[in-house]
Specification:
Blueprint: H1 3-25, H2 31-50, H3 60-72, H4 77-96, H5 123-139, H6 142-161, H7 165-169, E1 182-186, E2 192-196, H8 199-214, H9 235-248, H10 258-271, H11 276-283, H12 288-291, H13 293-309, H14 311-315
Antiparallel strand pairs: 1-2
Length: about 325
């Protein structure tokens, strides 16, 4: 190694150490975070060294080349984005300290992250799950039956309305006391929306209210009241009950949750020809692009069907 290269490496290492000291002293970065920054920056400095330059002289083109090299090695976009975040903070530090005149990372866009498609239950799986919940209500007695009726009601309402689980468990009893065809739900950001209630969901809710009266359960402002701090059933408790029911029904426990049922509501509606804007309104999405992910699910399903059954696809 030439003396100039050794000097460059030593200077780079000192700059990295100064940056880590700042992150620790001023921002209180955790030890694991500092270790990750150190690894990322040393790898970046080594790449720059192979390009014949150092951290102080890095340009936007050097950073782009580094990201391209990471992509060529098969690094995931999420991991590359994390590394770029470390580079941005480091170059911002150099600029803020007056060590360099420009920040070369400013013009670099983060790698595009593909939003993962949500898990979706088939319509048959939903039917199996709800049938298992109904069967429980017929064979159990006493307090166990009341819990079974409650779970059946939760399932029917969730699949019929696509409510967020936090919205579902916090429904007020007054909202369904008169058996309305619509629920008025206050969602994220305090936005209110009207959600239609299916005939089956309304029947399950009426059966639950009857069970509450028959068991002489004390009145509560919450539809799904509990003795916990919130006063109503928690998301976590509902999720556990749902997974237990899935196991009983012979379904994959790992693939079923309240959120997956919300996804099923949306994807099954769109597969049946529902309008995207209507589904957006029912889900309470502020941005239609969030709802459009369900169209990708349907597109993937159709593409898989073509690749499996089309004669030309098979011959290819």
């Amino acid at each position: 190694m030439k003396k100039s290269e050794r000097n460059e490496n030593g200077r780079d290492q000192r700059l990295i150490e100064r940056f880590l000291e700042m992150m620790s002293a001023e921002r209180g970065a955790a030890r694991n975070t500092l270790a990750a920054y150190e690894r990322d920056l040393e790898a970046y400095a080594a790449f720059l060294g192979s390009e014949g330059t150092g951290l102080q002289n890095a340009t936007s083109e050097h950073i782009r080349n580094y990201l391209a090299a990471l992509a060529a090695e098969g690094l995931k976009a999420s991991s590359a984005a994390r590394k770029l975040s470390a580079l941005r903070q480091f170059h911002n530090f150099l600029y803020g300290e007056g060590i360099v005149r420009e920040n070369p990372a400013t013009a670099i866009d983060a790698p595009r992250l593909r939003r993962p498609l949500p898990k979706v239950m088939t319509a048959d799986d939903v039917t199996t799950l709800i049938s298992a919940a109904e069967a429980r209500t017929l064979r159990l007695t006493g307090k166990a039956r009341l819990k079974a009726v409650r779970l059946h009601c939760l399932l029917e309402l969730l699949y019929a309305t696509g409510l967020r689980v936090s919205e579902l468990v916090a429904l007020k009893r007054q909202a369904v006391a008169k058996g309305p065809q619509f629920l008025v739900v206050k969602g994220k950001g305090g936005r209110e929306r009207m959600v239609p209630v299916s005939h089956k969901a309304a029947e399950a809710t009426a059966a639950y209210l009857r069970a509450l009266r028959e068991d002489e359960v004390p009145e509560s402002p919450w539809l799904f009241a509990s003795h916990g701090e919130a006063g109503h059933l928690t998301r976590q408790h509902f999720a556990l009950e749902l997974k237990a029911l899935a196991a009983e029904a012979g379904l994959s426990v790992a693939k079923i949750s309240p959120h997956v049922l919300r996804h099923a509501f949306a994807s099954h509606l769109l597969a049946g020809g529902a309008d995207l804007r209507a589904v957006q309104q029912m889900l309470g999405h502020a941005d239609i692009s969030t709802t459009q992910i369900y169209t990708h699910i349907e597109s993937d399903r159709l593409r898989a069907a073509v690749e499996t059954h089309h004669p030309l696809a098979k011959s290819g």
